[in-house]
Design a protein that fits this description.
Helix content is 35%, strand content 22%. By secondary structure, it is of the alpha+beta class. The protein folds into four domains: 197 residues, Histidine kinase-like ATPase, C-terminal domain (Heat Shock Protein 90, 2-Layer Sandwich); 164 residues, Ribosomal Protein S5, domain 2, CATH 3.30.230; 126 residues, Rossmann fold; 78 residues, Dna Ligase, domain 1. The strands form six sheets. Strands 3, 4, 5, 6, 7, 8, 9, 10 and 11 form a nine-stranded mixed sheet that branches. The chain has a five-stranded mixed sheet with strand order 12-13-16-14-15, sandwiched between helices. The chain has a five-stranded mixed sheet with strand order 20-19-21-22-27, sandwiched between helices. A hairpin with a 2-residue loop joins strand 5 and strand 6. Helix 3 packs parallel to helix 6. It is flat. The chain starts with a strand and ends in a 9-residue tail after the last helix. The relative contact order is 0.08.
């Protein structure tokens, strides 16, 4: 079995031969779970389901699996079943144990490493079902194969039974049930919507499969099957937009210099908006940082559209790529045997030959489409010409916010209270809503490394505005200039003057709206900050509780109730129970005074520092893009130009308002 070696050092005198510990089997996974699944929080928990489903999808890619079901069981476990070929159960010729046991209990064991079994595999990017086994309190695998039913159980990655034949069957497939280990994960409660979003995405990318999800806890059920594939996917994303063209679908395959076949599917359309929304996949993996497949598509799009427009006398001079990407919504899906991933999050395709393959296929297929659909072609060119005119008009505004480098700029916003440090590794920029809160933040901050940029109310919705208007907005211009890394395709997060950008707004509906507008700005024009983990949301407290001379802050209702229950057990002299805080109080019978903060401006500088800004005591929520597709759809829905999809989203999610994931 695979062995992992862990070197344990306590001090030099004790570092000897005995310090070298050999971790057998899956022990390394349990010792360092975050190394294998990213983290042990909610994200890592749901990654377990993704790994098991990926195995079923690989059977779909191989041409065998047509149906996949995912069930969240009432006891908190999860069951994934497919109708693929079923994991082999016979004795492995090299390891002399059941192949099923080998796959479930050994790292890097599986059919994906054999090109004859799987030409394309999304699971290569993951950690394998054996890691799911290692991190589960209980796992059961049932295999339907060769007319028989087989079963084996496990606990913490180790078999608790042999592979047993338990019946006969006329079907094939694999059924995996697992219960995440509460000793490993911070939470073991699966979220239905989070799982459903990924399964819907897989159904769009693999139109031949039908995926069902059922939640026994709340009796929720959905079935995802999209015969239109990427065409349906693009329409789904643009549901909240005013569409200008029909979806354009391109498909082809070719062998690169290495002889490896690359399959390419692309679908895109244009809407009345002003931003590009391009989502890319490799073997069903969302490549949120793009890569060679994206650059190949963009270069081919620009070249082919320019050639068509010039040849048909629609333009005199070539336009640039940005002009042709305004209002474009597209999906790029490529599948190849040996993808190479790189980038900050290892989700950027690095295979060089893929760029040329995609470029060649798009050049050929798109040229044919344009010739056969002149009306659609003219709509695209007209849209690009308008974008070009706006780009030229925006050139002067662009220069105002472009900086020579990270620190040299004589036109920093006048309302920016900068910090004295020039080390981006320690500096922080708080973007604060309101002059009152901004004033408290300026007084309460640590001037050495914390900078404050107050903004007035709600900034422009960049989802619905052209770049010219965006760069004329004083608040947005101040944000671009203060951060100093540029914007859009030119944005370079390494040139940011601050290592952390922290959004600080009131914990009410208006504050949520302002945060959403700011998040839209960063997602559209400074996305690399999010990839690099530099964007955060401050978490100011909702309540201040006081009993006698003791003060406590609560950041949500549950924390407030926990503090109240704890204080009720304490007995203080009656004389100490009479106290009036600065905020409007609501006093309980037990002498506990509860004050709800209506806004950041109500806090004095000391309170704001203590609760929200002090690195030693504050809570920050890091903004991440785990699912770029979901993020893009939510921004399109909430910030797009159609009211009905927005209303439906609010109605469907109102019940989850306390824990809404956006």
């Amino acid at each position: 079995m695979k062995e992992e070696i862990d070197i344990i050092k306590s001090n030099h005198s004790e570092y000897s031969e005995e310090s070298i510990k050999v971790l057998e089997g899956l022990e390394a996974v349990r010792l360092r779970p975050a190394m294998y699944i990213g983290d042990i929080g909610e994200r890592g928990l749901h990654h377990l389901i993704h790994e098991v489903v990926d195995n079923s999808i690989d059977e779909t890619l191989a041409g065998y699996c047509k149906n996949i079901s995912v069930t969240i069981n009432a006891d908190g476990s999860c069951t994934v079943e497919d109708d693929g070929r079923g994991i082999p159960v016979g004795i492995h010729p090299e390891k002399n144990i059941s192949t099923l046991e080998l796959v479930m209990c050994t790292l890097h064991a599986g059919g994906k490493f054999d090109k004859n079994s799987y030409k394309v595999s999304g699971g290569l990017h993951g950690v394998g079902v054996s890691c799911v086994n290692a991190l589960s309190e209980f796992m059961e695998v049932i295999v339907y194969r060769d007319g028989k039913v087989y079963r084996q159980t496990y606990s913490e990655g180790k078999p608790t039974s042999s592979v047993e034949e338990i019946g006969i069957t006329d079907k094939t497939g694999t059924k995996v049930t697992f219960l995440p280990d509460a000793k490993i994960f911070k939470t073991t409660k699966f979220k239905y919507n989070r799982i459903a979003d990924r399964l819907r995405e897989l159904a769009f990318l693999n139109p031949e499969v039908t995926i069902t999800i059922y939640d026994e806890r709340d009796n929720l059920k959905d079935t995802f099957h999209y015969e239109g594939g990427l065409i349906d996917f693009v329409r789904y994303i643009d549901e909240a937009q005013t569409v200008l063209t029909n979806p354009i679908f391109i498909k082809g395959n070719a062998n690169g210099n290495s002889g490896i076949e690359t399959q390419v599917e692309i679908c895109f359309q244009y809407n009345a908006g002003y931003t590009e929304n391009l989502i890319s996949y490799v073997n069903n993996i969302n490549t949120i940082e793009g890569g060679t497949h994206v650059s190949g598509f963009r270069s081919a799009l620009t070249r082919t559209l320019n050639n068509y427009a010039i040849n048909n006398k629609l333009i005199k001079e070539p336009l640039i790529g940005d002009d042709f990407r305004e209002g474009l919504t597209g999906i790029i899906s490529v599948k190849l045997a040996e993808p190479q991933f790189e980038g900050q999050t290892k989700t950027k395709l690095g295979n060089g030959e893929v760029e040329g393959i995609v470029r060649t296929i798009v050049n050929e297929k798109l040229a044919i489409y344009l010739d056969e659909n002149p009306k659609e072609a003219k709509k695209i060119i007209d849209k690009a010409v308008l974008a070009s005119e706006a780009r030229i008009a925006a050139r002067k505004s662009r220069e105002l916010v472009r900086r020579k480098n990270a620190l040299e700029n004589s036109t920093l916003p006048g309302k920016l209270a900068d910090c004295s440090s020039r080390d981006p590794n320690e500096t922080e920029l708080f973007i604060v809503e309101g002059d009152s809160a901004g004033g408290s933040a300026k007084q309460g901050r640590d001037r050495r490394f914390q900078a404050i940029l107050p903004i007035k109310g709600k900034i422009l919705n960049v989802q619905k505005a052209r770049l010219t208007k965006i760069l004329e907005n004083e608040e947005i211009k101040a944000i671009f200039t203060a951060i100093g890394g540029g914007f859009n395709d030119e944005f370079d997060s390494t040139k940011s003057r601050y290592g952390k950008i922290i959004l600080m707004a009131d914990a009410d509906v208006d504050g949520s709206h302002i945060r959403t507008l700011l998040l839209t700005l960063f997602f559209m024009y400074m996305r690399q900050l999010i990839f690099d983990g530099k964007l955060f949301i401050a978490q100011p407290p909702l309540y201040k509780l006081k009993k006698g001379k003791k003060e406590f802050y609560a950041y949500n209702d549950a924390e407030r109730d926990e503090i109240i229950n704890r204080l009720r057990l304490e007995k203080l002299p009656t004389s100490q129970q009479i106290s009036e805080p600065e905020e409007e109080p609501t006093q309980t019978k037990d002498g506990i005074i509860i004050s709800r903060f209506k806004g950041l401006g109500e806090m004095n500088p000391e309170q704001l520092w203590e609760t929200t800004m002090n690195p030693d005591t504050r809570t920050l929520l890091q903004v991440t893009i785990e699912d770029a597709t979901k993020a893009a759809i939510i921004f399109q829905t909430l910030m797009g130009d159609k009211v009905e999809p927005r209303r439906e989203f609010i109605e469907n999610n109102a019940q989850f308002v306390k824990n809404l994931d956006v």
